[in-house]
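Final report, Chapter 2: Outcomes

The project's central promise was a pipeline that accepts a single protein chain and returns its three-dimensional structure in a standardized token representation, suitable for archiving and comparison. That pipeline is now operational. To close this chapter, we reproduce one record exactly as it appears in the project archive, with the input sequence first and the structure output second.
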Amino acid sequence: MRQKFTRFMSGRYGGDAFTRFLSIVYLVLIVISIFLPSGIRDLVYVAALAVILYTVYRMFSRKLAARRDENAKYLQAKQAFKDFFRLRRDMWNQRREFKFFKCPSCGAALRVPRGKGKIRIVCKRCGTGFERKT
């Protein structure tokens, strides 16, 4: 039986990080639908059904390049999400020693020591200079 399944899955995409994420989304939607009134419950249930059908489609798909690209986009978005909150956590932990500014040109977060008065700040990413009070 295991050999039959192995032969069936050969050349198919299988599971990856995006598949695991979609499975978790499915489970969350199913649990949420339990606590909702009947009209909204049906909509959430249909959404959960669509998610699990797409997950199964991805697992059995033979379009390996397309599934690989979807997974890469998911991983990139996940990393951006984690980086955003990591930056906010670091800014919060360092708020007493440093003051944070946003570059007016590129939007990069810049850290300067507190209590230095009015200083010229140069962005390391784009080279734009501006003056601010610390």
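Archive annotation: The mean pLDDT is 92.
This record, like all others produced under the grant, will remain available to the consortium after the project formally closes.
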